[in-house]
Amino acid sequence: MAQPHWSLNSDRTKLTVDFPTEPPTRFELDADEMDDFIAHLAEMRAAMTPAVPFSDPDPGSRMSVAASGRWYVHPRGAEGAAILLLHPGYRWVGIALEPEPIRELIQVLLRCLPLNAQSPQSTSNPPK
Q: Which residues face 87 on adjacent strands?
């Protein structure tokens, strides 16, 4: 099956996708339409089988790791917190964690720090 052709217009405000169908199919999306499209694709993928496995990634797994972004923690009281990550392609993506997984995450992150690490400036928003 031939692959679609993806392109941005000259001012990078619209995505055009040309599908090699008979007859050819084209659609154009602005940034807001693209955000909606990505969100709907993610919802549909979550509903598909086979489900995305809830296991650690295998070496060489396909992942989208942003070179820049932000994070935000939204407290949820006794239920834990929602950890949100701002990805330049997906926008805000988050996961709700209960207290014990939060403790585990903290321990893993602490093990990632060098022993003599200084406290870096945070790029997060403090909870309000």
A: 91
